[in-house]
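Can't paste images in this forum, so I'm doing it all in text. The chain is below; anyone willing to post the predicted structure tokens underneath?
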Amino acid sequence: MNKIVKYSSLVIIICSMMFSFGCVTKSDIETLQIDRQQDLNRIKQLEAELEESKKLFKGEIEDSQTPVREKAADMWAEIQSLRAAQAKLRGEIDNVNLRMDRQIGDSNSTISMTSLGEQLDEIEFVLENQLQVDLPKVREERAAILAASAAAATTAATLPGGAEALGASEVTQPVTPPAPVEEAADSDPAKALYDKAYALYKDGQYEKARSYWAEFTDTFKAHPFSASAFFWQGQCYYKVKDYARAAILFEDVIEKFKTSSKYKSALLKAGYSWNYLGKPELAKMRMEEVVKSFPKSVEATQAKRYLDKTK
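Text version of the structure:
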């Protein structure tokens, strides 16, 4: 009888322990589910706030008749200053590489390859996205000039008398490639309209440029340049500090043109615009998306700096 009682007690204890462990496991699962649901609710709240802000700013824009205008900056002086800074930085990089190659030991210089690379990234980003300098085109033109100069030097070297046979001026002067023959303006009305808007933008006439790009997006809805036209409209508003309209247009690029080359730039500029509009959470969301989706891009470098400053 005592054995039966002892065994019964042991079974009861084991069952109690198993029931106790089962309760703890279920509680953990419920806690995880609650945390996950809270995260989903927070995401939905941010998305709802974003949509509400867009609707609010659209309403304000429709009622507003006097948008703030900003005087156009001196674009030429800015470009020249940035080009000079870029040349200086490249010279410093060459000096650092030369010092490393010769292994002359430690230097007291505070310049590092990382810092110089970051500064170059910033300059190239400003040249391409704010001053609209077509860096690939500039590099192609420079490569063509260098290739033409090298060809001229090679030709001179193969002639009897070398460089003297052609004359010093013909060898030393770079040969500029002939300009391509321009097609008639009416051969591609879409490109003509886009180029007109771009020329006005470079001239600092942001409102006129925006109106041409708006006409472009209304007329040529399925054109490959549509994403860029929407982006540059937003950039025109951004330049005159009309951040509400700018944010809406950048968000349009994000929603409608996810495969466009302007997608990551639109994310970055939308983040800046929301920050200026007093929406730091929306700005942070866009900046984090840039870093996550395009970690090695110049835009991600800018976004990281913004996020570091707002910590």
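Residues 65-73, 163-185 have pLDDT under 50 and may be disordered. Residues 2-63 form the longest helix (62 residues).
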